[in-house]
Amino acid sequence: MSGTISALVNPSNAISAYGRAAGTGAAGSPSFGDYMSNVITSAIHQSASTEQAASSGLMGKGDLTHVVASVAQAQVALQTTVAIRDRLIQAYQSIMSMPI
């Protein structure tokens, strides 16, 4: 039974379900799903930028301060993404455990 539950509980299922239920926000603001998509895309771009800075630093072409700052920013972006994912999974599990 836990295999079935773990298959249902993943961040993309939670984001998709919430996005379908919420639609767009008030006054034309983006939906929660759009917001989460933007956050994830931003974290991916930050990671790619960090990889480029690190590789140029390894080749001796980059500034060490820029490399360290870029790595720190990528670390914060990853920690934020993981924290959001964990909260989404927790919320999804809470909703799924509610009695009908």
Automatic annotation (TrEMBL):
<dbReference type="Pfam" id="PF02049">
    <property type="entry name" value="FliE"/>
</dbReference>
<keyword id="KW-0282">Flagellum</keyword>
<comment type="similarity">
    <text>Belongs to the FliE family.</text>
</comment>
<dbReference type="GO" id="GO:0071973">
    <property type="term" value="P:bacterial-type flagellum-dependent cell motility"/>
</dbReference>
<keyword id="KW-0975">Bacterial flagellum</keyword>
<dbReference type="InterPro" id="IPR001624">
    <property type="entry name" value="FliE"/>
</dbReference>
<keyword id="KW-0966">Cell projection</keyword>
<dbReference type="GO" id="GO:0005198">
    <property type="term" value="F:structural molecule activity"/>
</dbReference>
<dbReference type="GO" id="GO:0009425">
    <property type="term" value="C:bacterial-type flagellum basal body"/>
</dbReference>
<keyword id="KW-0969">Cilium</keyword>
<protein>
    <recommendedName>
        <fullName>Flagellar hook-basal body complex protein FliE</fullName>
    </recommendedName>
</protein>
<dbReference type="GO" id="GO:0003774">
    <property type="term" value="F:cytoskeletal motor activity"/>
</dbReference>
